[in-house]
Design goal:
About 25% of the residues lie in helices and about 25% in strands. By secondary structure, it is of the alpha/beta class. It contains 17 helices and 32 strands. The longest helix has 18 residues. The strands form nine sheets. Strands 1-17-16-2-5-6-7 form a seven-stranded mixed beta sheet, covered by helices on one side. A six-stranded mixed beta sheet has the order 9-10-12-13-15-14, covered by helices on one side. Strands 24-20-28-23-29 form a five-stranded mixed beta sheet.
Length: about 625
């Protein structure tokens, strides 16, 4: 039976050992250190004790209290070892952070040894299988779905003994079949209570799991964990989920399932949510809130702790008061890529035949003062080495060096190269169709200011450093008026600058907007194929000069074929018109791979042959540069 053909009552999926809530059976997801951030060395017990972390209580058998420890990671993004594939070197940043699940493993092993494995749990809050070239490689270049190999993230997470893993939005990037395959390789339950079969309320994935801790001398402790993913999935991966998966609001799903978990005997309820805690969204419309973790704590009774992620921030400890019960719900977000591990200490008391949380604290443990666990490095060594070799494969020779260092405020050759590849790929695809007569323009954004192509051999590593996301290429039709309004929206990326202010372009970027406190570089879209200026001395909505195409003014009703990535076309960033524009081309071609193929076919990258300065920044009509 197809996923869309049923509307009658159906059981939970066969891999879900969960109860279905009554009434639903018929209706078929602050960077930096703080006082609670802990650095640990190779002796966990001493370092944690020095930080004020309570030690293991030596209670007598039958004691009615116990402390359990819940560890959590999030946004690992296929970082398996402490390595930067774009730099082909050990990972480093200005704060001295380290990355990778092999580094996390050292921390987890130490904490288990200190606290006792019988009173510890390990969860993850999602965004696991995408993010580095390693993730891309084993999804598309040498896909584990075809080779039969174990995905490196599954191999490491299984070896580390995760107790449950929630789905993040990036888990859907490679399609549902790939996701299902990865889940089948995981020993831990993979959870997403709010990702349901389209048109029903039936979860497509396991909603929750309940684990029993057996601490010597204590009654069994039943800990339930509910997994929630991000509603933005239906926008950001529309091509993969449309008509197949819908994502409910986190509050709605938690309110549905937490009572079920309690009725199933969970003494303690923890939520693992791939959702930030700001209460805001990067998208508009009636889609449920993107960053809703704090709203769940506030509005859903019966939750003891929330591990959350998605925002790539570090929140060592936060308390939110539940409006119904007045109870303080503890929350923590570990910094992304394995840079931190969240650690909750929950002090439990046994009353009236059940355990309850009497005290709770949380902190984040920094992974930069331990070394990669050699067992976990060895586990993925062959796969890691294969990706390093792949990344260092030369694809073409560049006649001169190119850099993205100024791509956020100047029309650069390196970003033009992305646009020329997108334009030519779309041009070849629409040949012989009615759309072939339309002028083609292209959209690209400066994803990585550190990207560069050297003079001489350009490798896949260089291309991946320029185009760091796993986007695919699409083409839609926009009018001249729509393109102008799109550009006005993009120009909100810049602050308002006085005509005579000192030239400081780096300080003019990433401006706050009515929708967000910060505009990331990837939301500054630049067009090739049309000519325009951006006047920074003008207010928002009045910055784009009259557009021209091929030397002539663009009419409001003039139609253009627009090469665009799937994230933007699906509505990512909230740009006007593009999400509702007619789609002409969608062959699921990965843009990074298109760049590699284009460069390989040409053999030479010659900036003078494609770099056209078609836009510039001005103030009161005077060019900034």
């Amino acid at each position: 039976m197809s996923e869309l053909s049923h509307r009658h009552p159906e059981p939970a999926p066969r891999w879900c050992s969960c109860a279905v809530p009554d009434g639903d059976a018929a209706a078929p997801s602050s960077s930096g250190l703080s006082r609670r951030n802990v650095l640990i060395g190779m002796s966990a017990a001493g370092a944690l004790a020095a930080a004020g972390w309570p030690g293991v209580a030596n209670a007598a058998p039958g004691d009615k209290s116990v402390t359990i420890t819940v560890m959590g990671t999030s946004d690992l993004h296929t970082n398996v070892v402490n390595w930067d594939y774009y730099k082909d070197a050990t990972y480093s940043d200005s704060a001295g952070n380290a990355v990778g699940l092999a580094r996390v493993a050292s921390v987890v092993k130490q904490i288990r040894a200190d606290r006792g494995a019988d009173r510890t749990l390990l969860f993850d809050a999602g965004d696991t299988i995408q993010g580095t070239p390693l993730g891309f490689y084993y999804a598309t270049v040498e896909p584990v779905t075809e080779t039969g190999a174990t995905h490196p993230m599954a191999a490491q997470m299984n070896a580390l003994g995760y107790d449950a893993v929630a789905l993040g939005n990036h888990e859907f990037n490679y399609g549902l079949d790939f996701l299902d395959h990865w889940i089948s390789q995981m020993d831990a339950p993979v959870l997403a209570a709010n990702a349901v079969h389209a048109g029903t309320k039936v979860p497509r994935y396991t909603p929750y799991t309940i684990t029993t801790l057996k601490v010597k001398g204590r009654p069994p402790i039943r800990v339930g964990v509910l997994g929630l993913t991000n509603p933005g999935v239906v926008i950001w991966d529309k091509a993969n989920v449309d008509g197949r998966v819908e994502v409910q609001g986190l509050v709605e799903a938690a309110a549905r399932w937490v009572p079920v978990m309690r009725s199933e005997g969970a003494d303690i309820v923890i939520v693992s949510a791939h959702s930030g805690d700001s209460g805001t969204s990067s998208y508009s419309g009636d889609l449920p809130v993107e960053n809703a973790a704090a709203l769940v704590a506030e509005q859903v009774a019966g939750i003891d702790a929330i591990l959350f992620g998605h925002a790539h921030r570090e929140v060592p400890e936060r308390f939110v008061t539940n409006l119904a019960t007045g109870k303080q719900v503890i929350m923590s977000e570990p910094k992304n890529w394995g840079q931190r591990v969240s650690v909750f200490d929950l002090g439990l008391e046994f009353e009236r035949g059940r355990w309850r949380v009497a005290t709770s604290t949380a902190m984040t443990v920094n992974t930069n003062t331990v070394v990669d666990d050699p067992e976990f490095v060895a586990l993925v060594r062959g796969q890691h080495d294969a990706v390093v070799t792949y990344m260092n494969t030369a694809v073409a020779n560049s006649t001169e060096a190119m850099s993205a260092a100024e791509a956020c405020w100047k029309d650069t050759a390196i970003l033009d190269y992305v646009n020329v590849v997108q334009t030519e790929t779309v041009r070849a695809a629409v040949a012989g169709t009615p759309e072939a007569s339309l002028p083609i323009v292209s959209i690209a954004a400066p994803f990585n200011r550190a990207a560069s192509f050297p003079a001489g051999p350009v490798t896949i590593k260089d291309v991946a450093g320029l185009y760091i996301y796993d986007n695919t290429l699409m083409a839609s039709v926009l009018t001249g008026k729509q393109i102008r309004e799109y550009l006005e929206f993009s120009a909100e990326y810049f602050t308002l600058v006085a005509p005579d202010a000192p030239v400081d372009p780096a300080a003019w970027t990433n401006a706050p907007t009515p929708r967000a406190a910060f505009t990331p570089d990837y939301n500054y879209d630049q067009f090739s194929g049309v000519e325009y200026t951006i006047d920074l001395s003008k207010p928002i909505g009045q910055r784009i000069s009259p557009l021209s195409y091929d030397g002539a003014p663009v009419a409001d009703d003039q139609r253009f074929l627009v090469a665009v990535n799937n994230y933007r076309q699906s509505g990512g960033g909230g740009f006007p018109h593009i999400a509702t524009a007619p789609v002409v081309y969608n062959a699921q071609v990965a843009i990074r791979e298109a760049i590699v193929a284009y460069a390989s076919a040409a053999g030479t990258i010659d900036p003078p042959s494609f770099h056209v300065e078609n836009w510039k920044l001005v103030r009161n009509g005077v060019p900034v540069f």
